[in-house]
Amino acid sequence: MSIQWEGLIFFLACLDMEQTHQFYHEILGLPLYKDQGLCRIYEVPGGGKVGFCTHMKIAKNEKSPIITMLTQDVDGAYERLVEAGLTPLHPPQENPRFRIYHFFVHDPNGYLVEVQRFL
User: Fold this and answer.
1) Tens-digit pLDDT profile for residues 50-87
2) For residue 93, which phi and psi values (nearest 5 degrees)?
3) Residue ranges in the chain assigned as alpha helix (H)
4) What gap in Å lies between CA 83 and CA 23, rounded to an integer?
5) Are the C-beta atoms of 116 and 100 separated by less than 8 Å?
6) pLDDT at position 4, please?
7) Whose CA is closest to 51, among 109, 115, 118?
8) How, if at all, do strands 32-35 and 9-13 pair?
9) 65 preceded by cis ω (within 30°)?
10) Residue 46 DSSP SS3
11) Which range among 30-39, 47-56, 59-68, 109-118 shows the weakest confidence by mean pLDDT?
12) Per-residue model confidence (pLDDT) at position 73
């Protein structure tokens, strides 16, 4: 018997729900799927969902977790984040090791967000 999966939600803790909402909904444009009060879940076009909860403790280190957003318009995403007042770690660049074009920025909770496309 095979399990019929209906989707995936990845939950992370957040410090400030409104700042987190502004980053993921207003700046990145992820649709709000469900507001549960202590948690908000955002739909990721192309598949899956990411949720942020205020009742959890943030667990992260320098390199994890990494939230990777896929887009063909990496340069446009970079410009949008800069226009919103954010400071990415570096401009979009090619990474030959992984054959990607990408950049990183921190979200309001300190999580590393990568914006990339596969080459």
Assistant:
1) 999 999 888 877 777 899 999 999 999 999 999 999 99
2) -150, 160
3) 17-21, 74-83
4) 13
5) yes
6) 78
7) 109
8) unpaired
9) yes
10) coil
11) 59-68
12) 95
Amino acid at 86: L
Say if CB 50 and CB 97 are below 8 A apart: no
Looking at every residue in the chain, the average pLDDT score rounds to 93
- Name the DSSP letter for residue 31: P
Whole-angstrom Cα Rg for the chain: 15
Instruction: Kindly report whether the global pTM for this prediction surpasses the value 0.90.
Output: no
Classify residue 105 by burial, with Cβ atoms within 10 Å: 0-12, 13-18, 19+: buried
Residue 22, Cβ density class (10 Å: 0-12 exposed, 13-18 middle, ≥19 buried): middle
Taking phi first (over 0 means left), then psi (-120 to 50 degrees means alpha), and beta for anything else, what does residue 14 get? beta
CA distance 81 to 99: 23
Name the fold adopted by 9-118: 2,3-Dihydroxybiphenyl 1,2-Dioxygenase; domain 1 (3.10.180)
Structure tokens given for 11: 């939950």
Beta carbons of 38 and 55 less than 8 angstroms apart: yes
Q: How far apart are CA 81 and CA 76, in angstroms?
A: 9
